[in-house]
TrEMBL record:
Domain spans labelled Glycosyl hydrolase family 13 catalytic: 22-413
GO annotation, biological process: carbohydrate metabolic process
Lineage: Bacteria, Bacillati, Actinomycetota, Actinomycetes, Micrococcales
Origin species: Microcella alkalica
SMART domains, alphabetized: Aamy
Residues in coiled coil: none
CDD domains linked: AmyAc_TreS
Protein name: Trehalose synthase
Record-linked Gene3D superfamilies: Glycosidases, Golgi alpha-mannosidase II, Oligo-1,6-glucosidase, Domain 2
Length: 552
């Protein structure tokens, strides 16, 4: 692969870390995390090996959807600091070689946004067309994304006697993306944050950009124009899309072969099948979804994740499969949300079993694509089920075992959210203790990230799923121009012995060097490898060839 093809495609081998400023680190002791707090924690993230920060919405907001209800696209919520504090974060991150991307939420605004206030003031207001209004509820209207809170997606506005569209909460009216003036406004917002130093955006709610109506919106055309605009301003910037759709539709949202829409997309299908595999102790659902993943153009990339800030959605599984996962990992009704997802973090779902937790993260970092971590995953944080809905997993970062987990020195009742209680609380799970413990989950993450970053084939290479002879073990090979590796993951709580053939091109008598522990194995003259695996074992093996110039 030539530098002229690959240079600057930093997202292909990035480590993305998602955080919400308000729950990360409080520096002014008011109980709410802030930019200054984050600036003081950039070195922690750099040491972990993070190369790209994804900042969840930090804009002024009434806070009825945790910041995804925005009242000023150019602002910084005063609880978090001001623009100067944000610029310090950007500068410090850049100094440590880290990129920063922001949430771009342009499907809707808050109903407190000045555009909507003007739009609803009268039918002939110049901002009326900034939103989607109808005289009647159109036939066949879809169900709302939040079915426990909203009856539908159209809300009657008494004053002007028309209905406005809201795919999410009724206080989040959808912007009229068919309006060219609105599109120019979005472009200005993008341009503004790019000038301040952002390297791109996580694009919220992509499937909903396709709005009902006349003339309607072609979301692909919209994304193409935004991507073009973005890359004219900064060629190495990205759009990371939230597109929870089947693979064929995701492929379209990459722009297919042209690769001119979203740069990256989360693999929701893979994530859901991972949980099905974990529930069944059977690697096949995950293996099947990896096989079905469309092969992407060189510039495009999958973003792999095991947790995000929302419900852990299982909506792409069948009803029966979803129930299997619920029964395994969210047996109580209170652990579920919207009838389609789980509001727990991974370690509590796996009963805190370190072998099992490490196996899953080893897998995350070895799957072809770019890993995305949600803050606190690296130390194994749990959730607070006393918090409503999705807020259960949005508790303060646990820095040490002091009061409030070192997140804030404010009185605990003033905290933006209570810290996680009990067994997964700061007394047992915190960054400070793990930093000095070579056997901690944090130390494991640091090692995984170092190995991942030295194994560029994970971001670039070609995937082969290898038949391991037993259904509970996933063996996958990734072959790149600079080298190849094999990853082995045992989904079973029982030890296994496997025997498999290396894919073509890896050769007979190949030497396989362990990347996460000492030792290695040698393939026989037919290119077959035997391995004895412990329960929930995970192995990364570099396939050594004479022209591989890496350390191992
Ligand atoms: C998707 C975000 O991930 C979620 O947190 C939010 O509630 C909706 N979009 C609405 O903005």
């Amino acid at each position: 692969m030539r530098l002229t093809d690959t240079g600057d495609l930093w997202w292909k081998t990035a480590v993305v870390y998602c955080l919400d400023i308000e729950t990360f680190m409080d520096f002014n002791d008011d109980g709410v995390g802030d930019f200054e707090g984050l600036a003081h924690r950039i070195d922690y993230l750099a040491e972990l090996g993070v190369t790209c920060l994804w900042l969840m919405p930090f804009y002024p907001t009434p806070g009825r959807d945790d910041g995804y209800d925005i009242i000023d696209f150019y602002g910084v919520d005063s609880r978090l600091g001001h623009h100067g504090d944000l610029v310090e974060v950007l500068r410090t991150a850049k100094d440590r070689g880290m990129r920063v991307i922001a949430d771009l939420v342009v499907n809707h605004t808050s109903d407190q946004h000045p555009w909507f206030k003007a739009s609803r003031s009268s039918r002939d207001n110049p901002f009326r067309d900034f939103y989607v209004w109808r005289d009647e509820i159109p036939k066949g209207a879809p169900t709302n994304v939040f079915p426990d809170k909203e009856d539908g997606v159209w809300q009657l506005d008494e004053k002007t006697g028309q209905y406005y569209l809201h795919n999410f909460y009724h206080h989040q009216p959808d912007i009229n993306l068919a309006n060219p003036k609105v599109r120019d406004e979005i472009a200005k917002v993008i341009g503004y944050w790019m000038e301040l130093g952002f390297s791109g955006f996580r694009v919220d709610a992509v499937p909903f950009l396709q709005q009902d109506g006349d003339p309607g919106v072609d979301p692909h055309e919209l994304l193409r124009s935004l991507r073009k605009y973005l890359t004219r301003r900064a060629g190495d910037s990205v759009l990371l899309g939230e597109v929870n759709l089947p693979f064929e539709e995701q492929y379209e949202y990459f722009g297919g072969e042209a690769s001119d829409e979203l740069t990256m997309q989360f693999d929701f299908v893979g994530m859901q099948n991972l949980y099905l595999s974990l529930a069944r102790q059977d690697a096949r659902p995950l293996a099947d979804s990896l096989r079905e993943r469309p092969v992407l153009a060189q510039e495009s990339q999958w973003a792999n994740f095991v947790r995000n800030h929302d419900e852990l959605t299982l909506d792409k599984l069948t009803e029966a499969e979803r129930m299997e996962v619920f029964e395994a990992f969210a047996p109580d009704e209170g652990m579920r949300v919207f009838d389609r997802g789980i509001r727990r973090r991974l370690p509590t779902m796996l009963a805190g079993d370190p072998r099992h937790v490490r196996m899953v993260y080893s897998l995350l970092f070895s799957l072809p694509g770019t890993p995305v971590i949600f803050y606190g995953e690296e130390i194994g944080m749990g959730e607070n089920l006393e918090q409503p809905g999705r807020l259960a997993v949005r508790t303060p970062m646990q820095w040490n075992s002091a009061a409030n987990g070192g997140f804030s020195r404010a009185r605990s009742r003033r905290l933006v959210a209570p810290v996680t209680p009990d067994g997964f609380g700061p007394a047992h799970v915190n960054a400070a203790d793990q930093r000095t413990d070579p056997d901690s989950l944090l130390a494991f993450f640091e090692k995984l990230i170092r190995r991942y970053r030295a194994s560029v084939e994970i971001g670039w290479g070609e995937l082969t799923i290898i038949d391991a002879g037993v259904d509970c073990v996933l063996v996958h090979a990734i072959q790149g121009t600079e080298g190849s590796m094999i990853a082995v993951h045992n989904f079973s709580s029982d030890p296994q012995v496997i025997d498999f053939a290396l894919p073509n091109g890896m050769g007979s008598n190949a030497e396989l060097v362990e990347l996460l522990r000492d030792g290695g194995v040698v393939a026989d003259e037919k290119g077959r490898v035997s391995l004895a695996l412990e329960a929930f074992d995970h192995r990364w093996l570099r396939v050594h060839s004479t022209d591989d110039k890496r350390l191992s």
